[in-house]
Amino acid sequence: MYIWFKYKKGESVEIWFIGRNVNELKEQIKNKLKNQFGKFDINQITLRAHGKCESLRAEMVINEAFETSYDKPTFCVQCYNKEGEPLDKFELFKMYNNEDLNKFLRRVKARGLENINDSNREPKVVTSFEDIQDYEYYRISASFITAKSKGVAWMKFEDMALENEMTLAVKNVINKTFKSPVKEFPNRIMHDESGKPIMEWDKILLCRDKVFLCESKYKITEEKIDAIVERVKEFPEKLKATKDFEFKQLSDMEYIGVACAMLFPIKLRQKSLNELGLIIAYPRGSRYCVKIPPKMDESENVCNLL
Length: 306
What we know:
The protein is α+β, with helices and mostly antiparallel strands. It folds into 3 domains: 2-66; 74-153, no CATH class; 160-305, Trna Endonuclease, Chain: A, domain 1, CATH 3.40.1350. 25% of the residues lie in helices and 29% in strands. It is built from 7 helices and 18 strands. The protein has helices at residues 22-32, 34-37, 98-107, 160-178, 222-241, 245-248, 266-275; strands at 2-5, 13-16, 74-80, 86-94, 112-115, 125-126, 137-141, 148-149, 152-153, 183-184, 189-191, 197-200, 203-207, 210-219, 254-263, 279-284, 287-291, 302-305. It is elongated and about 70 Å long. The model is unreliable at 144-159 and 299-306 (pLDDT under 50).
C-alpha cells in the first residue's frame, strides 16, 4: 500500500509499504530518509497518525486504514464546544470532490473554511475542493452556525467590533495603571514543532515585563472563567513546546489573564478580581468598565466611553 508521511517542515514523501507493523514501517521510513534518520535506531523514532497526539505502538498492525493518496486530501478542521467557541483540538477529514466539501459546509451552515496559518488581515475563504491543501489546519468561516453534527452544536460568534472596542478600553487602563506603553502582540496562535496549533488567545497585550492574555465572550460563566485561569497557568509550558520564535520572546515574564464579556454577572466579577486575580472588562451604561485586581497596588479602576 502507498503511505505518505512528513517530517517536520519537509515535503511530504510517499513510500510503498510492504510489511506488517509499525516497527517495519519505521525501518522503511528510515531507509527513505537516510540523511535525517540514518543515525537513529527505530526505538528512537516515534510515529503519529496525522491529527493525532498518541504515538503508534511498535506492534500495531499497519492495515488499509493507513493508506493515503493525494487524490483525497487529508486536512483538519477546528472543533468547537456547545456554545460555538473554538477548542484547542481538531478533527481529521478526507474529502474526494466538491460535492463532499459542499455537503460539509451546508451541514454546518458555513460559507467556507479559513486556513488557520493564513496571516493576511482578511484570510482567504476556501469554498472549492481544489483549494484545500493537504495536511493543513482550517477553521469554520461563518457568521452564524446552528447545525448540529455528532453532538456538537454551533452558535453565533462574538461581535468583533465590540471585542475590539473592549480591548481598546483594556489597553487604556493598563497604560494608565502601569504608566508604560501597551503593545499588541502580532500573533494569537501558538504552534508546536510539527506546526499544529496548541493555544490561541483573542488578544495578547504587552506592557513592561507583563503579558496580558485576553479572552472575549458574549456571556461569561464560571466554567469559562476557570478555563481562562487554567490556560494562563498552562501558558509558560506551552512556550517551552512552541516552535514560534515570536512567542519564545515571551518567556520568563509575568502572565495575567483578562476576561472581557458583554454579560458579566456581579458574583463572577468579584470572584475573578478578588480570588482569581483576573483583569475584567464589561459594559456599564454608556461605558466599558475595566477593573484591576486589588493585589496590583499600582491599579485604578477606569470606565471608558463607548
